[in-house]
Amino acid sequence: MAALSGQRRLERRWGLLMALPAILGFVIFTAGPMVASLVFSLSDWKVGGSLEYAGLDNYARLGGDDLFWQSLGSTTYYTLGAVPLVMIVSFAVAMLLNQKVRGLAVWRTVFYLPTLVPAIANVVLWIWIFNPDFGLLNSLLRQGGLPGGMWIYGESTAIPSLIIMSTWGFGNTMVIFLAGLQGVPRHLYEAVSIDGGGPWHRFWHVTLPMMTPTIFYNLVVGVIGTFQVFNQAYVMTEGGPNNATLFYVYYLFRKAFRESEMGYASALAWVLFMIIMVVTFLMFRNARRWVYYEMAGAR
Amino acid sequence: MRRRDLFRMGGLTALGAAAAACGGGGGGAGAPGAVELQFMYWGSTFEQKAVNKMLQAFERSKPGRKVKPLFTPDEYDVKLNTLVAGGRVPDVGYVPMAMSFRLGEQGKLVNLFPYLKKYPQLAGYLPDAYLWSGQDNLHGVATANEIELLWYSKSAVAEAGIAPPPADAANAWTWDQLVENAYKLTVDQNGRHPDESGFDPKQVRQFGISSSITYGAAWYGFLRGNGGDIADEQGRKCLLDAPEAIEVFQNLQDLVYKHRVAPGPGQLAATGDDVPGTNILLKTKRVAMVVDGHWSLLDMNESKVDYGIGVLPKYGEPFTASQVAGASAVFAGTKHVEEAVELFAFHIDPRYVDLYQQGLWMPQEKKYYEDQAAIDSWTKNAAHPQEFRTAVVDYARDHGVPDFRNRLKNLSAISSDLLTPALQELETGKRSAAEVLKEVAPKITAQLQGWHHTQEL
Q1: What is the annotated signal peptide range for this record (chain B) (predicted)?
Q2: pLDDT tens string A191-249
Q3: Could you report the per-residue pLDDT of A146-178, keeping only the tens digit for each?
Q4: Which of A61, A136, B148, B416 is deepest in the core (most CB within 10 A)?
Q5: Positions of CATH 3.40.190.10 in chain B
Q6: A150:B428 CB<8 A
Q7: Which chain A residues have a beta carbon less than 8 Å from that of B267?
Q8: pLDDT of A2
Q9: CA nearest to B7, candidates B73, B70, B69, B65
Q10: Where are the alpha helices (DSSP H) in A158-295?
């Protein structure tokens, strides 16, 4: 017994030591800054100035800030467009890649490849695709005799353009769907076939219900991710034209680092954090109704 | 286009990675007794070379001084803000104009007022060059006196068979003359002009003119020339909804959508938002005439463009925005104030710095616009074309109006939250200038906090 507890002690010590880099990383780079930003959000701190307690002033100011509402609206619009579109496209492609076809590995690689393109290279590519004068999209439309669009340069088309662009990086979501599809038990499909069901029945009564946990996971991760959309606004549109693509995190960035209003920007950050938390909570609440777990009690 | 405002002094879209902007606040590294200073700046790759040469000249002329250049071509305000927040500011450097007033008010920049006696060359500046954040608190100066000009491609003008844009203010084109000539200079892929039937606005080979709607310095001369301004004398009421202002902006919008002689948003961009430099636009004859700052001269010469310089078209008065530049300042965090001020005085002194002869900068000292020998000292060389004297030196001295971006309080918030979005809307051509400006002007009024302090020396 003494030997065992000695080993346990050893394990505990070493375990803690091994986990230390991760713990330190979390404390220094995540928890610390979070606490700091909470403190900043209660102050009127501007870079270079002194930190003075301002209570909930920053939070009160949010309500009357048109751009706060505008950025929240743009971000929600983008989320509502991009998340379903990416989910549908990646689910469909995952289904195709779940078939027994020749060159499967090649296809899977091809569809995953865009995910590996660095974010900025990706953005530069799409800037060219969207160019109203000599971009790929308008050239194709012109050849088909259709009028071209202003894409990211038009106020009403900017967010839809970015939503279209978001499907480009569906590879990660697709891989998760693919893994989920491969976990669907064969015998359920066989049962449907024996009962005389066709492909639609197999999809509707087996694939979809069995996939709900995966769909749910991708939904939550997708919503959290798109609420924090930033790169496109930062590199492609700078929030324009006329604030059409002023996404929440970009607005926050602008307040913090261009206008140096760290206090206000920190309040923006905390409000976003709370919004995401509430939305995620609601999704979990709602999930009980439509997500099916085969193993009872698993969540 | 918005971010570009900050980096307009560079002309070229800045390339290359930033030098790591982290270092001690000018700690005395190296030999004992040696003072190491840090100089932070932005600019094009040509400007980078020129500034580094200036810093080396400083080291040679002052033994025991070392200067570490911190070249930061992109996201300058973000990086500088981060350094200020971290308490690791450089000793001397460029500061984006609006930010300089904030830092000045916060006491983060050394007050240069007491040093004017020690460095008399700093005391003879054009009055608009001084940046005050309160009575007797001189937190910096505009790095160079830059003005807006009408650059053109000589061969495009010759091909169109028109007289080149006038190079002296007395003979400046009227707006109508500008439009008329821009028609002749605009050509689609089939060689048609916008006033000919069959002209294809989607396939324009050469645009007649490019004059930015979103870039304040480009239109401020027009606005003032037409008797308007951005705000009233108290700086408390926005005047962009006045008829004079509406006329100026409607004319700019009409260049794109009515006359079709100017590019709309996205039409010049090769990759994204950053429009190629004026030197590239003229050299490739994508555009025949461009309204841009004097600083383009360096890049124009470096890339061997066949360019000419004209004055801007006039409304009532032939005005152009002057002092279109960032600020230069000494940071209060420096451990070596005296040496830092010494470097500050050096880095903008035409006697030691060849950025003036090379065409990047225009001097701030009055004598370089008034005294013949002093004028010759920076303009009599191959980088400055014949018309430079009337089109730039005389034009700046007699017809410059200081850029409102150096003078209006709270401008960075007004600009990013209200003004730029409104001007972008104008640029997309969906609504007229009257509609857009009447809507935004009261909102800007609500954010106005007056003009910055100014005083006589």
Answers
A1: 1-20
A2: 999 988 889 999 999 999 999 999 999 999 999 999 999 988 888 888 878 889 999 99
A3: 888 888 888 889 999 999 998 888 899 999 999
A4: B148
A5: 2-146+324-365, 148-321+405-447
A6: yes
A7: 132-133
A8: 52
A9: B73
A10: 158-166, 171-182, 186-194, 199-202, 208-227, 231, 248-253, 262-290
For residue B3, pLDDT beyond 50? no
- CATH classification for the domain delimited by B2-146+324-365, as one of 2.60.40.10, 3.40.190.10, 1.20.190.20, 2.40.50.100: 3.40.190.10
CB contact under 8 A, A48 and B106: yes
User: What are the tokens at B315?
Assistant: 């409304």
- Token pair of B37 as six digits: 């200073």
Q: Which single residue is written with the structure tokens 């003879």?
A: B124
**Closest residue of A to B98, CA-based?**
A259
Element (H, E) at B390: none
Do residues B207 and B215 lie in contact, with contact meaning Cβ atoms separated by under 8 Å?
Answer: no
Return the pLDDT at A174: 94
Question: B199-248, pLDDT tens digit by residue?
Answer: 998 889 999 999 999 999 999 999 999 999 999 999 999 999 999 999 99
CB A262 to CB B266 under 8 A?
no
User: Is A237 within 8 Å of chain B by CB?
Assistant: yes
pLDDT of the residue at B343: 95
Quick one: how far is CA B333 from the chain centroid? 27
pLDDT over threshold 60, residue B8: no
pLDDT digits (tens, 9 = 90+) for B282-313: 999 999 999 999 999 988 998 899 999 999 99
What is the CATH superfamily name and number for domain B148-321+405-447? Periplasmic binding protein-like II (3.40.190.10)
A181 touches chain B (CB under 8 A): no
**Pairing relationship of beta strands B204-210 and B187-188 according to DSSP bridges:** antiparallel
